[in-house]
C-alpha cells in the first residue's frame, strides 16, 4: 500500500487560492520562530489589493514576485495595501513597494504612537526596558537594553501610511466590500477585514489558528492590552462564523471555534496568575516564572531573551486586568510592582 502523501506545509511558497480571486502568499521570516507571514492578494478590476505586505527583506520580495507571477500578476499591479498592524513582518514591505510603484498604504490609527516613536529624534532607551523593570525583571531589562542598544531603525522602512484607519467602516473594492474592524489588543492599531459576502475574515495576528498572539509587548503600552484584546475577540465573535485567514498558520474553517479557544485560554491564564499570588505578593516576573510557557509547558528560565521578555510582559497584562476587575491590588515597589489579592 502506498503511503499517504504528507500535506504540504502552510509555509510552502506560491499563491494558494482560498476563494475566487483571493490568494494566500506565505512570505519568509528569517530568524523568526513564526517561520512565515501570510499576505493575501485580492484581484480586482483596478489591480491587486494586498492584506499585509510582508517584511522588507530580499527573500520576501523575491518570493512575492514569483508568487504573483504564478497567477500572471506583477508587484507593479498592487494598487493598495490594507495592513493589519504595524509590526515589521506586516508593514515594512508595503512601504518599500509604495516607494517604487505608488501603492496606497492604510494602517490603524492606534499604531501611530509606535511610528511616531520610531521617528523621534535623539538617543533613548528602548521603552521595553523600563516596562521590564516595573514588572520586576531587571535582569531581563538589562539584557534587553544591551540587545537593543545599537538597533537603529531604517526610517525608509517606517514611513507613515497614506491613510489612517479609524473606527469600524466599510472599504469598497471593485467587486467586493470589506468591513474594516478595529481590534486593539495585539497592538493598539490592529484591524481585521471581514468579507461577509464571501464568508472570510482576514484576521492578521488577532486570531491565529495554532498559537496565541503576544499581548502587552508594544513600545507605547496601552492601559489594558489584555482587556482590549478580549473585548476585540468578543466583537469578532459576534460576527457570523467565517473562514479564518490568519497571518501565521494555515487557513482554518471557523473563526467562532478558534475565538472560543482563545477566550478559554486567557481565562485559564488569569486563573493561574491568581493562584500564583494566593500566598504572598509577587511581581509579574515572579508570577511568570511560576507559569508554564508554550504548548510544551517550558519554564520561563528556559526561554530565550525575546520570549522571556514577551512572557513577562504578557503576565503583567494579565495581572493588570485582574486589578481592573477588582480581584487584585497593585503596589509600586523599588523591585517592581507587587500584586496581591484585593
UniProtKB/TrEMBL annotation:
Pfam families: Lactamase_B
Phylogenetic placement of the source organism: Bacteria, Bacillati, Actinomycetota, Actinomycetes, Propionibacteriales
Positions of the Metallo-beta-lactamase domain: 36-248
Protein name listed in UniProt: MBL fold metallo-hydrolase
Organism: Nocardioides donggukensis
Amino acid at each position: 500500500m502506498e503511503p499517504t502523501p504528507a500535506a504540504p506545509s502552510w509555509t510552502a511558497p506560491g499563491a494558494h487560492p482560498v476563494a475566487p480571486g483571493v490568494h494566500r502568499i506565505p512570505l519568509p521570516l528569517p530568524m523568526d520562530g513564526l517561520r512565515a507571514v501570510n499576505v493575501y492578494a485580492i484581484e480586482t478590476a483596478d489591480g491587486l489589493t494586498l492584506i499585509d505586505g510582508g517584511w522588507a527583506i530580499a527573500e520576501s520580495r523575491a518570493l512575492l514576485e514569483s508568487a504573483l507571477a504564478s497567477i500572471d500578476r506583477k508587484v507593479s499591479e498592487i494598487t493598495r495595501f490594507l495592513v493589519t498592524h504595524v509590526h515589521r513582518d506586516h508593514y515594512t514591505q508595503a512601504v518599500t513597494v509604495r516607494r517604487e510603484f505608488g501603492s496606497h498604504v492604510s494602517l490603524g490609527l492606534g499604531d501611530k504612537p509606535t511610528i511616531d516613536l520610531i521617528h523621534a529624534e535623539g538617543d533613548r532607551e528602548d521603552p521595553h526596558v523600563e516596562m521590564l523593570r516595573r514588572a520586576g525583571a531587571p535582569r531581563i531589562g538589562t539584557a534587553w537594553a544591551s540587545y537593543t542598544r545599537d538597533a537603529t531603525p531604517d526610517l525608509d522602512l517606517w514611513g507613515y501610511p497614506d491613510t489612517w484607519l479609524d473606527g469600524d467602516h466599510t472599504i469598497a473594492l471593485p467587486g467586493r466590500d470589506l468591513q474594516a474592524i478595529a481590534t486593539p489588543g495585539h497592538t493598539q492599531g490592529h484591524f481585521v477585514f471581514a468579507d461577509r459576502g464571501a464568508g472570510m475574515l482576514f484576521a492578521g495576528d488577532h486570531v491565529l489558528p495554532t498559537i496565541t498572539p503576544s499581548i502587552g509587548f508594544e513600545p507605547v503600552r496601552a492601559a489594558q492590552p489584555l482587556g482590549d484584546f478580549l473585548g476585540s475577540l468578543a466583537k469578532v465573535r459576534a460576527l457570523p462564523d467565517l473562514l479564518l485567514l490568519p497571518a501565521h498558520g494555515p487557513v482554518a474553517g471557523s473563526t467562532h471555534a478558534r475565538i472560543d479557544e482563545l477566550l478559554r485560554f486567557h481565562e485559564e491564564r488569569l486563573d493561574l496568575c491568581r493562584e500564583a499570588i494566593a500566598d504572598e505578593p509577587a511581581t509579574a516576573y515572579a508570577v511568570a516564572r511560576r507559569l508554564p510557557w508554550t504548548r510544551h509547558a517550558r519554564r520561563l528560565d528556559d526561554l530565550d531573551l525575546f520570549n522571556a521578555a514577551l512572557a513577562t510582559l504578557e503576565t503583567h497584562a494579565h495581572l493588570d486586568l485582574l486589578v481592573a476587575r477588582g480581584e487584585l491590588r497593585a503596589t509600586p515597589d523599588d523591585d517592581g510592582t507587587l500584586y496581591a489579592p484585593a
